[in-house]
């Protein structure tokens, strides 16, 4: 897989309302581990639309991997101009940092928000331009990623396309591993 799109939940869908929430580190670790494996096998591009939550954390995780994989590139593909216009200051700042990390940026419809069709066009574009989708998603907690997941499944029916999922169980295992590492580190004194 040379190009992967990454998507998933928005922070509020996960009950995350603070940038210091411990769940963010767990999610970034999960994404980073998957992206590392993909990079070891030839991944060249991580493509996101820069929405708050999983997509922002995926961009940050991809950027952190550049120490080991300097050729890994990040594309920021927004559905419309000024997508961050109505976001709070903290989300705008994270988005500005993402923009600085991005190797490529484009707003697909070249105009401000008009209607939901712009999100659909973004999703279609990401499916056409990538070899697979990495999605943080749990069937028992559908939320906004369900639309991209359904579209990717339909696309995969007629195209060679891989869908990789990070589930709640995957996140739980990573949280437990991180907790064990912290306990081991605190007993090493």
Layout of helices and strands:
Elements: E1 3-7, H1 22-40, E2 45-48, H2 54-65, E3 73-78, H3 89-101, E4 104-107, H4 117-129, E5 132-136, H5 145-158, E6 162-166, H6 168-186
Would you kindly provide a written description of the structure presented here, covering whatever features stand out?
It is a single chain. The protein has helices at 22-40, 54-65, 89-101, 117-129, 145-158, 168-186, and strands at 3-7, 45-48, 73-78, 104-107, 132-136, 162-166. By secondary structure, the protein is an alpha/beta fold. The protein has a single domain, classed as 3-Layer(aba) Sandwich (Rossmann fold), CATH 3.40.50.450. The protein has a 6-stranded parallel β-sheet, with helices on both faces. Strand 3 (73-78), helix 3 and strand 4 (104-107) form a beta-alpha-beta unit. Helix 1 (22-40) packs across helix 2 and helix 4 packs across helix 5. The mean pLDDT is 95.
Order of helical and strand elements: EHEHEHEHEHEH
Determine and state the CATH class.
Alpha Beta
- Specify Rg, calculated over alpha carbons: 16 Å
The helix content is 40-55%
Count helical runs: 6
Number of domains: 1
Based on Cα principal axes, name the global outline. Answer: globular
**Arrangement of strands in the largest sheet:** 4-3-2-1-5-6
**Main sheet makeup:** 6 strands, parallel
**Low-confidence runs of at least 5 consecutive residues:** none
Number of strands: 6
Distance between the termini: 43 Å
CATH 2nd-level architecture: 3-Layer(aba) Sandwich
CATH fold title:
Rossmann fold
- The overall pLDDT average reads 95
SSE class = alpha/beta
Q: What proportion strand? A: 15-25%
């Amino acid at each position: 897989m040379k190009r992967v799109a990454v998507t998933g939940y928005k922070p509020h869908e996960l009950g995350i309302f603070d940038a210091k929430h411990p769940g963010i580190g767990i999610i970034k670790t999960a994404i980073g581990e998957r992206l590392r494996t993909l990079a070891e096998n030839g991944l060249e591009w991580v493509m996101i639309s820069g929405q708050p939550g999983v997509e922002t954390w995926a961009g940050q995780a991809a950027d952190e991997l550049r120490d080991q994989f300097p050729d890994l590139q990040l594309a920021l593909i927004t559905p419309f101009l000024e997508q961050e216009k109505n976001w709070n200051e903290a989300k705008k700042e994270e988005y500005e940092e993402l923009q600085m990390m991005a190797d490529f940026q484009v707003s697909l419809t070249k105009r401000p928000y008009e209607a939901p069709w712009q999100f659909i066009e973004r999703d279609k574009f990401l499916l056409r331009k990538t070899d697979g989708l990495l999605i943080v998603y749990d069937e028992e907690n559908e939320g906004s990623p369900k639309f991209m997941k359904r579209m990717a499944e339909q696309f995969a029916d007629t195209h060679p396309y891989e869908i990789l999922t990070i589930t709640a169980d995957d996140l739980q295992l990573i949280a437990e591993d991180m907790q064990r590492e912290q306990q081991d580190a605190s007993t090493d004194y």
